[in-house]
């Protein structure tokens, strides 16, 4: 393939991109492209505007980019822009381009500052650009800004991962030089999907804003946190320059002068700056498309054969034949029932190996989320003991009693039992939502028949909602039953009864502690001087956490009582593939030797969630009721 052919690769992919966007389908093809990722105020917009030589992107406080922008740069002798959603209009005024991006964003997301993964396609023709396709994604944010929704951080992260997880995407990770590279949100996200740094191109902005006496030479020379494709430094216009409408041509000249005159960068000035970045991206995207072409062509041919086979089935199809309509309707409804059952029961040939779905998610709600909601019901032991004391005194009235009154005990226990209503009802809500999501996933096969799909969803969802009401009524009835009779012969009461001289029930031998979970974990925060991180076999019971040398559980290394212990999340290290959570003492005591907290590492976030749920089971609400019993036994 000659140079002319190479130059046509990016425009060819642009045509495919436009075709798929026009019909609203991707045909399950991941087209090669460059996804631009960076935190808010990292300088993404300035980098893209410097490519074009025009101010055309929306600016302002908070989250401005709320939909992905597919920006196609095309070399042309004339300068103008056009949008795929209004292709008949050519924009020569780039202020109008900005206004159209804002209007098109609001059209889909509304004016409530929401976000949407539906992209805007913008094509810019200019004599100052090289052929290039970039996707400008929303800036990564840590906290809600202004009137943004509280879960905006997770929505944006999910959207970004949706684009950069594709093996066909190169990742342009934009990081300002005046922040610690190890804390770069863009690089952290890139590492999640590209741990070897094979698809990631680093861009370092704001080199001119670094503290005096510091520089980013080690980063730009790819010595610190190296990437296969390296780093390129750029100097954008300052906020004052932007507000003052400083000409981008002048800004590029100032950028060139900065690199040539800076003692730390002058030796690499030819490999820095916006023009070099644009040229590098053009070359790398072209090469990436060339490498992807065989697989892309193979997938297209496979899908073409599949479509031709499907078309062949409809050659003799008579849509007005009533018997055919009825048969097709029954088959589709029956298939919906089969698909729904498979998703709930977990049977079938197609098993999702990427994420939990259907019945597995419901199982997780019952065994992990529900215990978590139970333990979230915070209570203060001092307040509980005070309530016990007041209940006893109020039941005695003017008399001074010798024995603990049953009415006081029941009043306190009932008050704890009634708190179970909220997490139980929330559990029902979560399960119902998952069932409805499963229904929608199963009806996706009916997308060619929108009215049938809509009616199927309506009927099944209505039925689920009816059962939701009955289920909640049954739960409330069960809790009322539990409140009406307190079974003090239950094993959770027996252990404390003996301490009060048999005031509650005859003493019986306590059963051995229940084992809640076993498994391998790594203690992550032991220093190298003391042996470094090491993997142990952990055993969690309702009363303690122990770890052993191996699965035989013969050589116990340590045992922690669970009293006053809680768990918290720990951010995963930049260079670590492990997922970490920590155990700490609520009374600020050392948990293990001289460690204020023990950091435990797992191979996956799912393992972390499962261990956390197990710890929560060890501190379930039944222990709170047991504390009530203990309070009465001690004569509180």
From TrEMBL:
<dbReference type="InterPro" id="IPR030381">
    <property type="entry name" value="G_DYNAMIN_dom"/>
</dbReference>
<keyword id="KW-0254">Endocytosis</keyword>
<dbReference type="InterPro" id="IPR000375">
    <property type="entry name" value="Dynamin_stalk"/>
</dbReference>
<dbReference type="GO" id="GO:0016185">
    <property type="term" value="P:synaptic vesicle budding from presynaptic endocytic zone membrane"/>
</dbReference>
<feature type="domain" description="Dynamin-type G">
    <location>
        <begin position="28"/>
        <end position="294"/>
    </location>
</feature>
<comment type="similarity">
    <text>Belongs to the TRAFAC class dynamin-like GTPase superfamily. Dynamin/Fzo/YdjA family.</text>
</comment>
<dbReference type="InterPro" id="IPR022812">
    <property type="entry name" value="Dynamin"/>
</dbReference>
<dbReference type="GO" id="GO:0031623">
    <property type="term" value="P:receptor internalization"/>
</dbReference>
<dbReference type="InterPro" id="IPR045063">
    <property type="entry name" value="Dynamin_N"/>
</dbReference>
<keyword id="KW-0505">Motor protein</keyword>
<dbReference type="InterPro" id="IPR011993">
    <property type="entry name" value="PH-like_dom_sf"/>
</dbReference>
<dbReference type="GO" id="GO:0005874">
    <property type="term" value="C:microtubule"/>
</dbReference>
<dbReference type="GO" id="GO:0003924">
    <property type="term" value="F:GTPase activity"/>
</dbReference>
<feature type="domain" description="PH">
    <location>
        <begin position="514"/>
        <end position="620"/>
    </location>
</feature>
<protein>
    <recommendedName>
        <fullName>dynamin GTPase</fullName>
        <ecNumber>3.6.5.5</ecNumber>
    </recommendedName>
</protein>
<dbReference type="InterPro" id="IPR027417">
    <property type="entry name" value="P-loop_NTPase"/>
</dbReference>
<dbReference type="GO" id="GO:0098793">
    <property type="term" value="C:presynapse"/>
</dbReference>
<dbReference type="Pfam" id="PF00169">
    <property type="entry name" value="PH"/>
</dbReference>
<dbReference type="Pfam" id="PF00350">
    <property type="entry name" value="Dynamin_N"/>
</dbReference>
<dbReference type="GO" id="GO:0005737">
    <property type="term" value="C:cytoplasm"/>
</dbReference>
<dbReference type="Pfam" id="PF01031">
    <property type="entry name" value="Dynamin_M"/>
</dbReference>
<dbReference type="GO" id="GO:0005525">
    <property type="term" value="F:GTP binding"/>
</dbReference>
<dbReference type="InterPro" id="IPR001849">
    <property type="entry name" value="PH_domain"/>
</dbReference>
<keyword id="KW-0342">GTP-binding</keyword>
<keyword id="KW-0493">Microtubule</keyword>
<dbReference type="InterPro" id="IPR001401">
    <property type="entry name" value="Dynamin_GTPase"/>
</dbReference>
<dbReference type="GO" id="GO:0008017">
    <property type="term" value="F:microtubule binding"/>
</dbReference>
<keyword id="KW-0547">Nucleotide-binding</keyword>
<dbReference type="InterPro" id="IPR019762">
    <property type="entry name" value="Dynamin_GTPase_CS"/>
</dbReference>
<dbReference type="GO" id="GO:0005886">
    <property type="term" value="C:plasma membrane"/>
</dbReference>
<keyword id="KW-0378">Hydrolase</keyword>
């Amino acid at each position: 393939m000659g140079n002319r052919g190479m130059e046509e690769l990016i425009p060819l992919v642009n045509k495919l991109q436009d075709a798929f966007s026009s019909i609203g389908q991707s045909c399950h093809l991941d087209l090669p492209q460059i996804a631009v990722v960076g935190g808010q105020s990292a300088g993404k917009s300035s980098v893209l505007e410097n490519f074009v030589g025009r101010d055309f992107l929306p600016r302002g406080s908070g989250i401005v980019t709320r939909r992905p922008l597919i920006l196609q740069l095309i070399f042309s002798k004339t300068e103008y822009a056009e949008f795929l959603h209004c292709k008949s209009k050519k924009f020569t005024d780039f202020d109008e381009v900005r206004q159209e991006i804002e209007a098109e964003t609001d059209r889909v997301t509304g004016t409530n500052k929401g976000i949407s993964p539906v992209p805007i396609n913008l094509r810019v023709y200019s004599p100052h650009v090289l052929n290039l396709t970039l996707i400008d994604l929303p800036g990564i944010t840590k906290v809600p800004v202004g009137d943004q929704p509280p879960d905006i951080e997770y929505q944006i992260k999910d959207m970004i991962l949706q684009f950069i997880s594709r093996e066909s995407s190169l990742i342009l990770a934009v990081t300002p030089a005046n922040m610690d590279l190890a804390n770069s949100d863009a690089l952290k996200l890139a590492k999640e999907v590209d741990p070897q740094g094979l698809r990631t191109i680093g861009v370092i902005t704001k080199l001119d804003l670094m503290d005096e006496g510091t520089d980013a030479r080690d980063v730009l020379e790819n010595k610190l946190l190296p990437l296969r494709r390296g780093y390129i430094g750029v100097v954008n216009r300052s906020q004052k320059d932007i507000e003052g409408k400083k000409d981008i041509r002048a800004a590029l000249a100032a950028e060139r002068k900065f690199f040539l005159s800076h003692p730390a960068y002058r030796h690499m000035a030819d490999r820095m700056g916006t023009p070099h970045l644009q040229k590098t991206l053009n070359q790398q995207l072209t090469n990436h498309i060339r490498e992807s072409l065989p697989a892309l062509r193979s997938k297209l041919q496979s899908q073409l054969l599949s479509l031709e086979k499907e078309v062949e089935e409809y050659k003799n199809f008579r849509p007005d034949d009533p018997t055919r309509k009825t048969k097709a309707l029954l088959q589709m409804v029956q298939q919906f029932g089969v698909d729904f059952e498979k998703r709930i029961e977990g049977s079938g040939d197609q098993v999702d190996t990427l994420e939990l779905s259907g019945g597995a998610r419901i199982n997780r709600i019952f065994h992990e989320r529900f215990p978590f909601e139970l333990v979230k019901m915070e209570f203060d032991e001092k307040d509980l003991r005070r309530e016990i004391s007041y209940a006893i005194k109020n039941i005695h009235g003017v008399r001074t009693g010798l024995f603990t009154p049953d009415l006081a005990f029941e009043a306190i226990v009932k008050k704890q039992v009634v708190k179970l209503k909220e997490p139980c009802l929330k559990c029902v809500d979560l399960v119902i939502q998952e069932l409805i999501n499963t229904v929608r996933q199963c009806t996706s096969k009916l997308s060619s028949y929108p009215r049938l799909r809509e009616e199927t969803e309506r009927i099944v969802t209505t039925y689920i909602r009816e059962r939701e009401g009955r289920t909640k009524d049954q739960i409330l009835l069960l809790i009322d039953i539990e409140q009406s009779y307190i079974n003090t012969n239950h094993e959770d009461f027996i252990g404390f009864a003996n301490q009060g001289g048999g005031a509650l029930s005859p003493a019986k031998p306590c059963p051995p502690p229940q084992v809640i979970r076993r498994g391998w974990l790594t203690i992550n925060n032991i220093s190298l001087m003391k042996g470094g991180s090491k993997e142990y076999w952990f055993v969690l019971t309702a009363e303690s956490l122990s770890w052993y040398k191996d699965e035989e559980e013969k050589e116990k290394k340590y045992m922690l009582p669970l009293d006053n212990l809680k768990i918290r999340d720990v951010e995963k290290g930049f260079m670590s593939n492990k997922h970490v959570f920590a155990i700490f003492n609520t009374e600020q005591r050392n948990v293990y030797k001289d460690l204020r907290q023990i950091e435990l590492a797992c191979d996956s976030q799912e393992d972390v969630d499962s261990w956390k749920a197990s710890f929560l089971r060890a501190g379930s609400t039944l222990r709170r009721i047991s504390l009530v019993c203990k309070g009465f036994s001690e004569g509180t």
